[in-house]
Amino acid sequence: MFTTTSGGRHRRRIRIALPVSAAGVAVAVAAALLTTSAEAATPLPQPSVNPAISAPSAAELEQRLTTAIAGDDKAGQALTKSSFGAGTTAQGIDPKIIGGTTTTITAAPWMAQLWYGDDKGTADTADDVGFFCGGAVVAPTKIITAAHCVAGYDWHQHGSVITGTAQLPAVDDQGYITDLHGGAITGVWRQWHHSSYRASTLDADLAVLTLPYAIKATPIRMTTAGDTTSYTAGTSAKVYGWGRTSSTHDNISETLKTATLPVQSDTTCATAYGSSFIKGHMVCAGTPATGSDDGTTTACNGDSGGPLVVNNRIVGIVSWGVEDCVAAGAYSVFTKVTSYVGAAYPRLDDTNFDGDHRGDLWLRSGSTDIGYSRYSRGTSFVAGENWGDWAGVNQVVQTDLDRDGYQDMVYRRSSDGDVFWAHYVVSRNTWITQRIADNWKTRTRMAIPGDVTGDYLPDLLSVDSAGVLWIYPGKGNGTFATRVKVGTGWNQYNWIRGHGDFTGDGRTDLVARNASNGYVYLYKGTGKAGTGAFASRIKVTTWSSSTYNAVATVGDVSGDGRADLLARTPGGTLYLYRGTGNATGTFFSARVSVGTYFKAYDILT
User: Taking 80 as the threshold, does the pLDDT of residue 197 lie above it?
Assistant: First the structure.
């Protein structure tokens, strides 16, 4: 019978007394940016930060970790059938690495421990829920893991994440946690799992946790859509985790382990598992298990959510296997990341004002110059905050230049064309405004669509007076590398917009409208810099200025994991065009009105 691969911890009830120095929340200090960015400007008014973003206290994290380590629950509880056993029973999600070797955090700096501990608010420990999963840091505030570790659980209220160490927390004889071994602990701000996830089949078993502030761990990238090379049978892949090291006991490993597994063909996996293996959605790896620990190398209980890595890219997420992991002929099964990267990538770049995974609007009144935020509710917008007087500005772009999970604003001053970056700094609990470009008054277009160059860092695009499109590769801290020329002729467009991936391939795209004929084009991102940054344009539709006089791209408005587009009529009706995620054909669904009151705003972004 199948079993998923979380759970299986040391089953002892413990108390915890974590030193403040070890358990305290380590917030990112942004002061260094002031020495690498240009001079600060007099800041425009900024809003308060949503209180839901606040990190849990050290005491709360201690309590969560206590409950999680003491627990012996299993994440997910899936019901699946297997050719390896006559019965069909509900089993927990449980992987381990059997036959692997010890590794270091230096070799896998992106590895994360995910601890879930819910004491149910009672003194009775019998109703506690506690389990463990693995994960991988894919951006400074983002952890990718398995959906069965996330779906149905409230990670904001009960989760904790440890990064920067290869060892599990040390516990003394009295049950106190005495050492995090140099690791850093944080809570979880938001969670997302793939909308197609099904616990009964473990289909689409992929999720992303968003942390309340950026951590120092070095991220690892996901593979791209359309990757077939990494899944060729026989390809060597490495799995990482703290899971069980034997089929004969439930203890997970105190130290991070890794193992090299050969990728198997879909045919081999389907032969082993029948209809339980879903081609295209799953991949299996390893050599056939022997029926015992001897001669078997496999993931097992406790490895759930950990990465399968090929050429320094995540190609799989530990998902499920057989009970106790070593049944003769069994393989480890992983979520096939190339099939889901189009949905996962927007979650890496989904910053918004109220932190609910849906892209929000920022607007300025044309008569009063007052800025406002409006929060998306999927197919409508509700009132957000008053941002005060934003006079003297002629362009505003939402972004997250430092990848800290908080929405930033980049704006251009009308008088001299200087461009400024306003961003919230967690450690100071305040906004800081810095100049990032001088005298861009003649720049005709500016956009920050996300990661154009394929390094998971947001880039800035600008069209100069000669019509040349330039990429300014972002460094992830508000500064940029030397600009790279994309091409000429971009002054033909009266707007260029982008925020995320319109085609579902995990790469950042652009849309642009020709000023003379209203043709709207899609430029698919390639993940490269320079002249190859975008594929040949594809005509999407025709929108004259009398059809729409403003267009905004703020990311995923609807919350379905796909980038959307907003367009306003001269009469003030704002329409939502939901992204389909299709690589060809219809890129956006039929429009839906989200309001008729938008005529008064001269900036929508």
Answer: yes
Higher pLDDT, 223 or 19: 223
Q: Which residues pair with 163 in a beta bridge?
A: 112, 184
Q: Contact 266/279 with Cβ under 8 angstroms?
A: yes
User: Who's near 404: CB < 8 A, 6+ residues apart?
Assistant: 28, 140, 141, 213, 214, 423, 424, 426
Q: Where are the beta strands (DSSP E) in 464-585?
A: 469-472, 484-487, 493-497, 510-514, 519-523, 538-542, 550-555, 564-568, 574-577
Q: Are 404 and 141 in contact (CB under 8 A)?
A: yes
In whole angstroms, give the CA distance from residue 536 to residue 554. 23
User: 308 near 321, Cβ under 8 Å?
Assistant: no
Q: Cα torsion for 505, 509, 513, 519, to the nearest 10°? A: -20
Give the residue with greater pLDDT, 376 vs 58. 376
- Mean pLDDT, the chain, rounded, equals 85
- Six-digit token string for 355: 């932190």
Tell me the pLDDT tens digit for each residue of 285-327: 988 876 656 655 667 767 889 999 999 999 999 998 767 676 7
Numbers of helices and strands, H then E, in the chain = 6, 40
Sheet with strand 550-555: strands edge to edge = 550-555, 564-568, 574-577, 592-595
Partners of 374 in beta bridges: 361, 383
Whole-number pLDDT of residue 374: 96
3-state secondary structure of 169: coil
Taking the model in full, what pTM does it have?
0.83
- Given its phi and psi angles, is residue 548 left (phi above 0), alpha (psi -120 to 50 degrees) or beta? beta
What local confidence, expressed as pLDDT, does residue 31 receive? 24
Tell me how many degrees the CA angle 106-108-109 measures, rounded to the nearest 5. Answer: 65
Chain position carrying tokens 């890219």: 313
Report d(CA 161, CA 55) in Å as an integer: 12
What is the model's pLDDT at position 35? 28
CA distances from 321 to 200, 247, 252 (A): 14, 12, 16
Q: How far apart are CA 345 and CA 340, in angstroms?
A: 9
d(CA 159, CA 188): 6
SS3 257: strand
User: CA dist 371 to 367, 393, 553, 602, Å?
Assistant: 11, 11, 17, 10
- The answer for residues whose C-beta is within 8 angstroms of residue 540's C-beta and 6 or more apart is 511, 520, 521, 522, 587, 588
Q: Which residues contact 58 (CB under 8 A, 6 or more apart)?
A: 18, 20, 23, 24, 25
Confidence check: pLDDT of 8 > 60:
no
Structure confidence by residue, pLDDT tens digits, 389-415: 999 999 999 999 998 888 999 999 999
Instruction: Decide: 439 and 465 in contact? Cβ < 8 Å.
Output: no
Output the DSSP codes for 413-429: ETTT--EEEEEEETTTT
pLDDT grade for 41, boundaries at 50, 70 and 90 = low
